[in-house]
Amino acid sequence: PQPVRLGDYRPPDWLVDTVHLDVRLHPTAARIVARLALRPNPEGREGSPIVLDGDELNLKSVTLDGAPLAGSAYVATSTGLTLLAPPQRALTLEIETVVDPSANTRLMGLYRSSGTYCTQCEAEGFRRITYFPDRPDVLAVYTTRIEAERDEAPVLLGNGNPVEAGAVEDTSRHYAVWHDPWPKPSYLFALVGGKLDRITEDFVTATGKTVELGIYVEPGKTARAGYAMDALKRAMRWDEEAFGCEYDLDVFNIVAVADFNMGAMENKGLNIFNDKYVLASPETATDADYANIEAIIAHEYFHNWTGNRITCRDWFQLCLKEGLTVFRDQEFSSDQRSRPVKRIADVRLLKGHQFPEDSGPLAHPVRPSSYREINNFYTATVYEKGAEVVRMLKTVLGDEGFRAGMDLYLDRHDGDAATVEDFLACFADANGIDLTQFALWYAQSGTPRLAVSGHWDEAARSYRLDVAQTLPPTPGQSEKLPMVIPLAIGLVGPDGRDLPLALDDGSNAERGVLLVTKPRQSFVFRDVPHRPVPSLNRGFSAPVKLSSDLSTADLLFLARHDSDPFNRFDATQTLALSHLLEATSAVRAGGEQPAPDALVEALAATLGDTSLDPAFVAQALSIPSEADVAREIGEDVDPDAIHAARTRLRHAVGEALAPALEAVYARHAPTGNYSPDAASAGRRALRNTCLDLLAAGGTAKGIARAQAHFGAADNMTDRFFALAVLAHAAPDAREDALAAFHRQFRADPLVVDKWLALQAQIAEPQTLERVRDLTGHADFDWSNPNRVRALIGTFAGLNPTQFHRADGAGHDLVAGAVMDIDGRNPQLAARLLAAFKSWRSLEPVRRASAEAALRRVAGKPSLSPDVTDIVSRSLD
Ligand code: HT7
Ligand code: ZN
Asked: Domain containing 402 — which CATH number?
């Protein structure tokens, strides 16, 4: 397909005011009658045809104002329906189509998941249900009548509020009518029909309106929906308090389905979820699962305002809803849990997923300027970097200025299909500032680099920070302009306290934030009586790669004293990373690099500081991942050498800190029943981190402790963590533990996913065969995206030594899976293929094998547009 370009945007020629859908559900021939009230758009081109999108539709009939349309009046193709010369006035089109939900393996449009009828319309799925101007700037009011066999689908749900329901006389069928009063784009349409159980609760909004909340799950699973309901109510309250956003319908429903291409979908009043992000019980879900459920339930709910009430003008503006809504869900989780720990987790995710994207062949701006396949732009850059950009806006404007901008945005653009420019204009107008340079964050791809050095002038009692910014070239962008980088800093005095920040021009660095706007800039602070240690980019205020002249002693000092928890954490990570870089080089040269005392000392100090939050200590004790090291090395990467260096470091730390780790492990033994709250989860995280490091120390005692932990666990967090320790560190104990786990949970597909994913991560050559064998296991299913992501996605994403095997077998396995899956689910296939995104940074042998695998995929006849897009950009 030809690329779609942002610069080519034109308003729609025709608008749709109302849509009446009559959907008769049937396993293989669902019949949809769509009545559309259309009118010419005064802002469109005069005299235009009516162009409707369509995809894999079986067209039965078309009428215009009640009269059948002559065959010569329209053209129907595989991609749409065009009325060639319609009267240029308001008119009604009625279109009847038939689709086959059971054959819909792409999981876009109307499909069946374990027998339940459901829909997924974002981004371009509505056109797989009926012909329609399937673009986000066509907003209409929808009424939906759904009809089905009562036995097959006793529950019938739609967008908006329920209007009526009943039996279809003299048949075994029944129907329900739903009306959504809020105009919406087609991508927010949804319906569900199936045999589902429900939990329900009332929520009273800030202005006293009662909303009936419902969560629908597969029969027998309601006991596992309680946490999602609790998270939903907390999210609804939080959005009222933090952003003044109140819910606007009489009901809010969530449906959990087992087959879903992504995490969840924010359809108006009817969110549809991957069941992985709804179902939780202490026996089946880990603390991380609970945290994800809370975040994703909140995220989809928050879209009700940022995405639904204010939607996107076009798909280039995707970050307008996604980046902003991720920011909002991050803030929610920070308020519900520990803010510093949440920030550390978010930055780890950003560095782990978005930074590699930004430095590889798939790099694109937060707001791309062209795309071939929009489904490939639901990326870490749009979501996570998009959230960072909103966070920077808040850092620049301060809490009040940010809230003023948000209030204006929610008010000024309610009911609109808006753009990034509209969004920024609200913050500029509300604060009286110019955000022209700031807007470059949306347009320039790549991760800025910031080099910072500090100079203390004892005589002048001043301190100067020299800052240089660069932005590397990225695909399609060789020249870059300097960005606005809000650099939050502190100057830490010898007593560990922050010095006042007084700039020599008389200004204060407002809220401790320096605005770096030029390629090179110096900031001079006066009244600095002692040489301070600068704490830079506090809270990771800007998503940049920062290098500085901080010494090991400075980092040790920050690790102990920085008042900014993120930088306290980061100081230890920086020490560990710099050791791992040297140790990796040493391994490649056939040598060894002992673990530095300074690092062990820093870890010991953190472990011994009982004033710290256990969840924070767990994060601070974690050794940077192999992917972190690979990213830092950047080129000529040898995953085996990284793995060896990291394994040795973990062994050394486990050995050196054993007594302290044992003591902390013992001190954090569970005291009562499992509870998923943040404090309890933090204690488990720390205890499990100790367990892991002790086992990494390689002693029989360490392994025995993990076995005992596995046997004694009364919840999935502890059980699965111990299983992971055994799987990675104890080959002799591994198989028995894996088998026991499988025996216990084989009936639960979401737990089977954990079992699959864990095996896919084992860093040894037999894993390839194991993964191959598992694809033939009775509990594996190529047609379920969760199963495929658990096994193949984890292998490609979290097992660098085996995915990038020097003999190329790992690359072959993933490329082969991509080609197999592409025929049935191109979106899933394209996402798996994106695991090759850093292939150019590999050492030559592995790079050649990755390239060969990509070329094999590229050469396969009849590839989907989704995979074609990823493979061609990867090879460009
Ligand atoms: N807005 C939703 C994105 C989404 C999606 C996109 C493409 C294909 C399938 C999809 N399912 C959900 C989810 C979100 O970000 O909130
Ligand atoms: Zn979203």
From this structure: 1.10.390.10
